[in-house]
């Protein structure tokens, strides 16, 4: 699993645009000029041209790490907003990420102020055993960080205020169904996760009216380094893989690279506003997903994991895998977004290569 989950090392160089209190590591333009003008619209025009400064919460997570790599590869400046500097420094060592700024909560204000954009990905993982305390923290962690980020954006001086907030939410917004089909116009569900998503989204929407807000309702993200797949692969490799529960539940997936591209487009294109489903165009039932995974791994997919076993393991959290929803990326298609991975088989093949 360690081998399968290893993160690719990154050699891209990072442009520098630190807030005044951060050390200078790398220069791409006249520092004295930029320091004087930092935080002003003119600064952004003169010193960054089409380069952005992006503050990211949850940057140390599965999706965030890939996003940081992508932004870095395009020479944008990145500010990692984390709860733990030491953890983030291990994930983003200075030698591989020169110019990357890492900030704990008391420094987040310095980072948000003067950023062009904020991406909000923070939240306690949901694929654990749910206790009342965990359930509370699943919601609170998302609402708390989103609320903090929105407050910092709104508090920023107008000239230094980020112009866009891309905030994660989840397809759990729609509730679960074996028969329904959901797009961005569908109503919200009435279970716990839909309630979490409604509050999470509502908090992001409190950003000032001059800030463009894109809410990405993310499906199950497929990638080698984390998420659902990293949990499923070891079972298949032990010849013990198979559908979870009935296998009839919908599995609205997206390849991590497509999701990162979608977030990237949302940062840079003004037409990306409001709710956008972050799911591939061809969702599958979980049974099919497991069959495809088994075939890509050269392992059988014959040992179904029964509902009761998952419930014993995950408690109420088992609903995350035992129930799903069929979600279509209608907005992304309208916006002209090109999915690199439209079919789960291709996504899995690319991931396992
Ligand atoms: N992966 C998926 O399949 C999927 C599907 C739908 C929605 N999403 C949403 O997309 C976002 C990113 O997903 P991910 O898979 O990259 O998540 P992840 O790997 O679990 O990372 C999330 C990050 O959130 C921060 N975090 C964790 N617990 C927290 C807490 N109690 N309070 C505040 N911050 C906390 C951590 O950053 P620091 O330690 O640096 O602060 C962590 O690195 C999440 O909000 C998730 O709900 C993901």
The CATH superfamily label reads: NAD(P)-binding Rossmann-like Domain
The main sheet orders its strands as 3-2-1-4-5-7-11
Report the average pLDDT across residues: 85
Count of all domains: 1
Per CATH, the architecture is 3-Layer(aba) Sandwich
Fraction of residues in β-strands = 5-15%
Distance between the termini: 15 Å
Organism: Arabis alpina (Alpine rock-cress)
Protein name: NAD-dependent epimerase/dehydratase domain-containing protein
Domain DUF1731: 305-351
Domain NAD-dependent epimerase/dehydratase: 55-271
Provide keyphrases for this structure.
about 350 residues; alpha/beta; Rossmann fold; seven-stranded parallel sheet; about 40% helix; binds NADP nicotinamide-adenine-dinucleotide phosphate; Epimerase_deHydtase; DUF1731; NAD-dependent epimerase/dehydratase domain-containing protein
Entry summary:
With about 350 residues, the protein is an alpha/beta fold. The protein is built from 14 helices and 13 strands. NADP nicotinamide-adenine-dinucleotide phosphate binds near residues 61, 64, 88, 124 and 141.
Structure description:
The protein is of the alpha/beta class and 353 residues long. It has one domain: Rossmann fold, CATH 3.40.50.720. It contains 14 helices and 13 strands. The strands form 4 sheets. The protein has a 7-stranded parallel beta sheet, with helices on both faces. Strands 6-13 form a two-stranded parallel sheet. Strands 8-10 form a two-stranded parallel sheet. Strand 2, helix 4 (85-91) and strand 3 form a beta-alpha-beta unit. Helix 10 (286-297) runs parallel beside helix 14 (344-352). It is globular, with a radius of gyration of 20 Å. NADP nicotinamide-adenine-dinucleotide phosphate binds next to helix 3, helix 4, helix 6, strand 5 and strand 8. NADP nicotinamide-adenine-dinucleotide phosphate (NAP) binds at residues 58, 60-64, 82-84, 87-88, 121-125, 137, 141-142, 145, 168, 170, 218, 220-221, 226-228. InterPro entries: DUF1731, Epimerase_deHydtase, NAD(P)-bd_dom_sf, SDR39U1. This is NAD-dependent epimerase/dehydratase domain-containing protein. Residues 55-271 form the NAD-dependent epimerase/dehydratase domain. Residues 305-351 form the DUF1731 domain. It comes from Arabis alpina (Alpine rock-cress).
């Amino acid at each position: 699993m360690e081998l399968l989950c290893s993160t690719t090392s990154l050699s891209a160089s990072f442009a520098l645009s630190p807030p005044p209190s951060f050390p200078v590591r790398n220069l791409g333009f006249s520092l004295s000029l930029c320091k004087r003008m930092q935080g002003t619209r003119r600064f952004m025009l003169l010193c960054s041209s089409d380069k952005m400064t992006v503050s990211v919460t949850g940057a140390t997570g599965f999706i965030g790490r890939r996003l940081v790599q992508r932004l870095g590869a395009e020479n944008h400046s990145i500010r990692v907003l984390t709860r733990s500097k030491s953890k983030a420094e291990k994930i983003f060592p200075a030698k591989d990420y020169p110019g990357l700024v890492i900030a704990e909560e008391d420094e987040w204000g310095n980072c948000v102020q003067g950023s062009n954009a904020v991406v909000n990905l923070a939240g306690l993982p949901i694929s654990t055993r749910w206790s009342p305390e965990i359930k509370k923290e699943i919601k609170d962690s998302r609402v708390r960080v989103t609320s903090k980020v929105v407050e910092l954006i709104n508090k920023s001086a107008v000239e230094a205020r980020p112009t866009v907030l891309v905030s994660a939410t989840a397809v759990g917004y729609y509730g679960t169904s074996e028969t329904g089909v959901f797009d961005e116009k569908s109503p919200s569900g009435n279970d716990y996760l839909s309630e979490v998503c409604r509050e999470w989204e509502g908090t992001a929407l409190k950003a000032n009216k001059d800030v463009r807000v894109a809410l990405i309702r993310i499906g199950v993200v497929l990638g080698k380094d984390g998420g659902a797949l990293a949990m499923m692969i070891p079972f298949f490799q032990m010849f013990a893989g198979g559908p979870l529960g009935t296998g009839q539940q919908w599995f609205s997936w997206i390849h991590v690279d497509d999701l990162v591209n979608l977030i990237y487009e949302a940062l840079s294109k003004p037409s990306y506003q409001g709710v956008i489903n972050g799911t591939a165009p061809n969702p599958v039932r979980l049974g099919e997903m497991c069959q495809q995974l088994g075939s890509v791994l050269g392992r059988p997919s014959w040992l179904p994991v029964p509902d009761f076993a998952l419930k014993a393991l995950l408690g109420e959290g088992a609903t995350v895998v035992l129930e799903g929803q069929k979600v279509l990326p209608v907005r992304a298609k309208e916006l002209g977004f090109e999915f690199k991975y439209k079919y789960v088989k291709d996504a899995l093949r690319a991931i396992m290569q």
